[in-house]
Amino acid sequence: MADKQNMALVHPSQEILDNALVKNYDELYQYSIENREAFWAEQAETLRWIKPWDKVLDNSNKPFYKWFTGGEINIVDNAIDRHLTGETRNKLAIIWESEAGQVRSFSYYALNREVSQFANVLKSMGVQKGDIVTIYMPQIPELVFAMLACAKIGAAHSVVYGGFSYEALAARIEDAESRVLITADGGFRRGKPIDLKAIANEAMKRSPTIEVCITVRNNGIDAEMESERDFWYHDLQSLPIASPKCPTEPMDAEDPLFILYTSGTTGKPKGMLHTHGGYAVYTATTHRMMFDIKPGDRYWCAADPGWITGHSYIVYAPLINGATVMMYEGAPNYPYPNRWWQMVEKYGINILYTSPTALRGLMRFGDRWPQRHDLSSLRLLGSVGEPINPEAWRWYHEVIGGGRCPIIDTWWQTETGGAMICPLPITPLKPGSATKPFFGNEIGIVDDEGNEVPAGEEGKLVIKNPWPGMARTIYKDDARYAELYWGDYGDKDYYKAGDSAKVDEDGYLWIIGRMDEVIKVSGYRLGTAEIESALVSHHSVSEAAAIGLPHEIKGNVIHTYVILKEGVTADKPLAQELKEHVASEIGRIAMPEEVSFVEALPKTRSGKIMRRVLRARALGQDEGDLSTLEE
Ligand code: ATP
Ligand code: MG
Questions:
Q1: Residue that finishes a domain, picked among 215, 249, 283
Q2: What does the pLDDT look like over 385-424, one tens digit per residue?
Q3: Domain identity same for 324 and 424
Q4: Strand locations in 99-235, DSSP E?
Q5: Does residue 74 lie within any of the structural domains?
Q6: Which atom of ligand 1 is nearest to the CA of 309?
Q7: How far is the CA of 112 from the centre of ligand 2 (A)?
Q8: Which of 320, 342, 376, 421 lies 20 to 30 Å from 558, alpha-carbon distance?
Q9: Residues 528 and 589 in one domain
Q10: 316 and 181 in a common domain
Q11: pTM of the model
């Protein structure tokens, strides 16, 4: 355990240092903590406001903090409109490639026309400021147009990831009481058409609030349309009503921008509410600083817009920052495991942002796939979603980044809106650590009373201050929001993240797992991430999950589930070898009682391991809410 934290730092190259936007982390961090409101006001000033704010932070009704109160802004005015007068106007905003290889691209000028036309269509359908429109689509440009069109006219969106079942979709439509649903005939996955409209139809049977459904033609399969309710997107976009001129609605900074559900890794998903003002400021600032965005960059966040990562770092922040955004609808290994690397080369991608689960999935196929491609355009690599195992970190750094590209490991949540703990390109790195707090944030690792635990010890991760990108509430459930995230530490006003972590002597933060998944063995507290990373560091292992199961004497024992690399045979000696390997990496206390070889792990659709499902299965208990479980 200890050696991991004392390992040599990985330093950025001179070139990265010379070109960095932020040159001195400590200095700016200190300033941002001592002058939090001034710091955020300065960042907010880089955006265009329709009316200036009166107050940066209103904390009169904790924990319902408000930011930039009295101010008027529209995030779309910043993501599109203000780019139309300068050089960015003719720059590419979006390059999209389908799984079949079709390419579509849109300049900021073209993006504005598409969004404005659709905004007018929505208005003609009676969509008003304050409505919540549900969007259920594959990763196609129209998904982005739909989100932006809603925001432009002051409606909030609720994007439901295109892989969800009709039950999950219906439940979210009901929660939002949406009148309008935007969907597509379908998408493709591994060359196979997916019939989204049929799923949407099933959901609508259970959704009495829906009056209008707009369908984008994408994969061309037969879609059942109901005459009063259903409209084709392309028909509407060609009507005279769909004029490419549409005013952007001035919004109060605190007006809702969207609701979005958490991944459902630890339980029933929570519908988080985000707003126009603070969210725009927070996402744009984090994106600009952690990815050192340069005017010529081609930036690719390979998540889905249906997750918070996509909302913040495919759609809103990069467009506010005037970047060129890459989008890809399809599987990372289709038709072959070099698909991503081929695209990095083809488009000259400079920044790639993805998840540990995707990396481990691609690592499995070996180095020869990326090595067939010229990846020298890459400058920065990002990671999000789960702790990145040091093994995957090194592969990303060496094989993908050629040892040249800093790994920006960003810790955050649907609730936080944007990255909370992350390095900057200049930060010396430790593989597996998300490093230090972003500006303005004070992170604590605390015990049950909210007191700081000593360096090196495991504790609960809290955020000690409000930040502009924070969710404002759980939609329709203020009480649950206050209780779940803010209730634990009395008048300390700490935000409880629900993760467990530790800080090392250099102030680097290590996420070690979900708070309620910490495994207590004979009085020791072990993190799932630690055990899983130890397993993944073995040359035959591709992915691993660890859980604790009750044991009469030891309190708990560790059970592990392992996916092997291609071509490795599962047998008893290997299971024993893996147990020994964990024991030698962490200590005998961490030695798994069982190693089971599996073909797949239960994961959320955003790719996170659902350890609660493994636990429930092992104990023969009810598996709980499975609405976000991947098939
Ligand atoms: P639910 O809250 O419904 O259980 P979830 O927490 O997985 O689902 P998200 O908001 O998508 O929903 O994920 C946030 C969580 O993902 C964090 O709390 C953390 O556990 C994990 N996470 C995200 N990024 C990182 C990272 N860079 N390092 C470690 N863990 C991360
Ligand atoms: Mg969560």
A1: 249
A2: 999 999 999 999 999 999 999 999 999 999 999 999 999 9
A3: yes
A4: 103-107, 132-136, 156-159, 180-184, 187-189, 192-194, 212-216, 230-232
A5: yes
A6: 11
A7: 34
A8: 421
A9: yes
A10: no
A11: 0.96
